[in-house]
C-alpha cells in the first residue's frame, strides 16, 4: 500500500485553497510551472528579512548568506545524485544557463565539428546549439523521435554519430508528449563516439528520481519552478569536464567551481527557497517511512508520488480517448505508463486548441494551448505551430476529482464548440 496522503500534501500548498469569486482553482498548468509549498515561500522571505547581504564579507549577514548559497548547492547535489556540490551551477533559468554553457563549450569546437539535436527537445535545448553552430560553422544533424514509440531510438542516434560528433543534446522527458527517453543507453552510444552529452531534464525532474552518475551524461539541467521551487535553473556538470572549461566571466571573479560559471551576485533568497523545495521532497519521503539520508528520502518521495500520479494520468488519457476526433499526442498504452510523465497533449479535429483552453480557463481550470516551445515536435507531427495543442499537466498535488471535473469540462466544451460550427 502506497503511503501517500493527498490531503497532507495539498495542505502544504496555500495556492491550492485559493478561490476566485468563490470558484475553486484546478491547477493543470504544471508543465509550465508548479505551485510552491508554504515552506518555500517562508524560506525566501526569511532570507530576505534576516540574511540579506552580498557575499564575501566578515559580518553576520554575509556569513549567513554564504551558508544559504552553500546549502542550496549541497541540496541540489543530493537531489540529482551528484558527486559534489561543486558540480552544481545555479542561475537564472534553464535557457540562460544553456546559452551560457553552449558558448563556453564552443571554445572547444571548430568549423566542421558535428552536433546532434533532437526533434523532441524544448527550444531551450535547441536554439543555443543552432546559433552556436551558425557562429562557428558546425554541422547540425537532426535526430527525430519515433512516432510509434514516441521516444528517441538508439538505432537512429547510432546512424548519426561519427568521429566528428562533439555534442549530443538530449531530452529526458518531453514537455508536450510526456515521453521519457532512455537517456542512459542513448548516452552510452554518444560517449562511445567521443561526444559530450547535454540533457534537458526540466520536465522529468518533478516526476522521477535523477541520478546523474548512473546516467553517464556530462551535463544535465532542470528548473526549480517545475518541481515546487522558485524561479531559477540548475545545471549539473561532470567535474572532470567543467574543471577544464574556460568560462565567460569577469576578469576579477573567482576561478573556483562552481563560481566561475555563476555570473554576478547570486539569487540568494531564491537559493534559500530551492533548499526548501528539496527539503519538501525529503519530507515527503520521511512521511512515507524512509528515515535515511536526504538522498534516500528523496528517492522514496518519487517512489510514492509516481505511484500516485500514474493512475491519474491514465484516468485522464482514458477519459480523453472517449471523445470522437480527439488525438492524444503521446503514449496511451496503460502498460507503458512508466515511459511517460503525466503531461498529456491533444488536438481535436476542426477545433483550434486555444478556443478549448479559453473556455476551460473561464471555468478556472488552468491549462495551456500552443506549441509550448516544443517547436520541433509540432513540426515533425505536422501540427500548425501557430495553433499547437491543448496541454494538461498533472502534479502530485492534483486529485482524481479534479481530473474528473476537467474531463467533464473537456467533453462539454468540445460538444458546445462543435454545435457552434457552421
Automatic annotation (TrEMBL):
InterPro entries referenced in this protein's UniProt entry, alphabetically: Aminotrans_V_dom, Cys_dSase-rel, PyrdxlP-dep_Trfase, PyrdxlP-dep_Trfase_major, PyrdxlP-dep_Trfase_small
Record keywords, A-Z: Pyridoxal phosphate
Domain of life: Bacteria
Acyltransferase as UniProt keyword: no
Every Aminotransferase class V domain range: 26-404
Coiled-coil residue spans: none
Pfam families on file: Aminotran_5
Protein name per Swiss-Prot or TrEMBL: Cysteine desulfurase-like protein
Amino acid at each position: 500500500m502506497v503511503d501517500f496522503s493527498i490531503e497532507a500534501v495539498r495542505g502544504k500548498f496555500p495556492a491550492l485553497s485559493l478561490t476566485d469569486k468563490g470558484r475553486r482553482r484546478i491547477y493543470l498548468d504544471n508543465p509550465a510551472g508548479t505551485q510552491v509549498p508554504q515552506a518555500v515561500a517562508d524560506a525566501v522571505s526569511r532570507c530576505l528579512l534576516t540574511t540579506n547581504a552580498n557575499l564575501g564579507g566578515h559580518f553576520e549577514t554575509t556569513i549567513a548568506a554564504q551558508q544559504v548559497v552553500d546549502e542550496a548547492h549541497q541540496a541540489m547535489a543530493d537531489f540529482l545524485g551528484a558527486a559534489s556540490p561543486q558540480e552544481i551551477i545555479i542561475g537564472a533559468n534553464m535557457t540562460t544557463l544553456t546559452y551560457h554553457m553552449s558558448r563556453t563549450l564552443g571554445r572547444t569546437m571548430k568549423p566542421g565539428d558535428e552536433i546532434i539535436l533532437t526533434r523532441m527537445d524544448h527550444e531551450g535545448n535547441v536554439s543555443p546549439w543552432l546559433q552556436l553552430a551558425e557562429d562557428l560553422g558546425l554541422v547540425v544533424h537532426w535526430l527525430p523521435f519515433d512516432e510509434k514509440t514516441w521516444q528517441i531510438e538508439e538505432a537512429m542516434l547510432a546512424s548519426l554519430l561519427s568521429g566528428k560528433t562533439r555534442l549530443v543534446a538530449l531530452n529526458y522527458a518531453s514537455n508536450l508528449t510526456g515521453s521519457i527517453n532512455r537517456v542512459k543507453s542513448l548516452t552510452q552510444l554518444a560517449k562511445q563516439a567521443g561526444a559530450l552529452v547535454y540533457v534537458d531534464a526540466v520536465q522529468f525532474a518533478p516526476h522521477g528520481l535523477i541520478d546523474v552518475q548512473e546516467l553517464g551524461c556530462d551535463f544535465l539541467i532542470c528548473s526549480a519552478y517545475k518541481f515546487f521551487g522558485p524561479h531559477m535553473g540548475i545545471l549539473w556538470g561532470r567535474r572532470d569536464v567543467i574543471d577544464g572549461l574556460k568560462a565567460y566571466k569577469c576578469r576579477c571573479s573567482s576561478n573556483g567551481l562552481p563560481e566561475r560559471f555563476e555570473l554576478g551576485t547570486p539569487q540568494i533568497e531564491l537559493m534559500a527557497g530551492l533548499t526548501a523545495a528539496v527539503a519538501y521532497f525529503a519530507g515527503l519521503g520521511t512521511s512515507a517511512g524512509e528515515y535515511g539520508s536526504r538522498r534516500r528520502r528523496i528517492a522514496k518521495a518519487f517512489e510514492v508520488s509516481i505511484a500516485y500520479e500514474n493512475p491519474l494520468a491514465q484516468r485522464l488519457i482514458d477519459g480523453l480517448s472517449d471523445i470522437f476526433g480527439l488525438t492524444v499526442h503521446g503514449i496511451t498504452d496503460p502498460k507503458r505508463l512508466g515511459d511517460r510523465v503525466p503531461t498529456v497533449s491533444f488536438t481535436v479535429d476542426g477545433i483550434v486548441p486555444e478556443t478549448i483552453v479559453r473556455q476551460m480557463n473561464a471555468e478556472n481550470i488552468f491549462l495551456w494551448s500552443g506549441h509550448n516551445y516544443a517547436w520541433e515536435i509540432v513540426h515533425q507531427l505536422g501540427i500548425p505551430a501557430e495553433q499547437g495543442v491543448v496541454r494538461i499537466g498533472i502534479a502530485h498535488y492534483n486529485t482524481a476529482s479534479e481530473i474528473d471535473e476537467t474531463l467533464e469540462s473537456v467533453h462539454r466544451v468540445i460538444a458546445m464548440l462543435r454545435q457552434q460550427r457552421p
